[in-house]
Amino acid sequence: MQQIPVKTDEHLRELIDYKDISFPLETWDDLYTSFPDYTLNCHWHDAFEFGTVVKGELDFYTEETCLRMKKGDCIFVNCNVLHMAKQVNPGEPAEMIGVGFPPSLFPDGSIFHKYFQPVMNMQLQGFCTEASDLHGINIARFIEDICRIPDDVYGYELQALSLSSRLWLETLAYISEKNHSFLIKETPPHHGAMVRQMISYIQEHFAESITIRDLTEHAHISRSECFRSFHRYTGKKPMEYINEYRLLQAAGLLRETNLSISEIGSFCGFCSSSYFGKLFREKYGISPLGYRKGLLPTFDSP
């Protein structure tokens, strides 16, 4: 069953459920063929994020920048940066493993102020290393080593903390060597806030009629800036994003409720059952009824 890969609040902040809140470190293994539309949904968090591609290709979006990532490439995403990712080729499965931890994993003292706070204060979005880059090779190795530690093994926290320290040291070495030339183009903070406002509005009102004017008035921006911002952050036009979000919600209702097809279409903001069915089939290659019966297409996308 496909589900939204990242749970967020109304402001797109990820609701991270650490196994041990006293040791806030998480690892993951993302198989993009299991995600709706092969997409890691748009979100942000107060943790540093590291990931490396172990299979396929991904388009990784951070603020205004789209990075094409291949096997062996690594990504670093700074705290509080809006980001998302999408599998490039539906026929070529993509997989990324990752590690995330907030600055609070390390004590607030000289180590924090000397090695972590400067990166947080740079307001950089992140960087991507290629598989051939020496620092990237080391970063990928540390990510893999952390992900391999059994979380029930004695001394897990000490091993994970040691490797995370080495991972961060390698990150600082990369920053120092590149002399900040790797920095993704910085975006004025209000740009990210505008997109978060519009996406939050869509999530709250997807069952209602939504127009471009509704979005521009909610975010206090022009129509042209609305289109530019959506494309920068999601790679989609506003109405395309709205319809895909509605279809995603509809797929969940088809799986999890006994509501009729027409009721689901109406609940998700579609003006008619025929229009809902048309868009659903165009997007997923199957009718809503066929999806409910489990007659899923071979590419396994809702």
Short descriptors:
302 residues, alpha+beta, Jelly Rolls, 2 domains, 5-stranded antiparallel β-sheet, 4-stranded antiparallel β-sheet, globular
Summarize the structure.
By secondary structure, the chain is α+β, with helices and mostly antiparallel strands. It is built from ten helices and nine strands. The chain folds into two domains: 26-178, Jelly Rolls, CATH 2.60.120.280; 189-292, Arc Repressor Mutant, subunit A.
Give an overview in words.
This protein is of the alpha+beta class and 302 residues long. It has 2 domains: 26-178, Regulatory protein AraC (Jelly Rolls, Sandwich), CATH 2.60.120.280; 189-292, Homeodomain-like (Arc Repressor Mutant, subunit A). Helices cover 43% and strands 16% of the residues. It is built from 10 helices and 9 strands. The protein has a 5-stranded antiparallel beta sheet with strand order 1-8-3-6-9, covered by helices on one side. It has a 4-stranded antiparallel beta sheet with strand order 2-7-4-5, with helices on one face. A hairpin with a 2-residue loop joins β4 (58-62) and β5. α2 (134-148) runs antiparallel to α3 (156-178), α4 packs across α5 (212-219) and α4 packs across α6. The longest helix is centred in the middle third of the chain and has 23 residues, at 156-178. The termini are close together. The model is unreliable at 181-185 and 297-302 (pLDDT under 50).
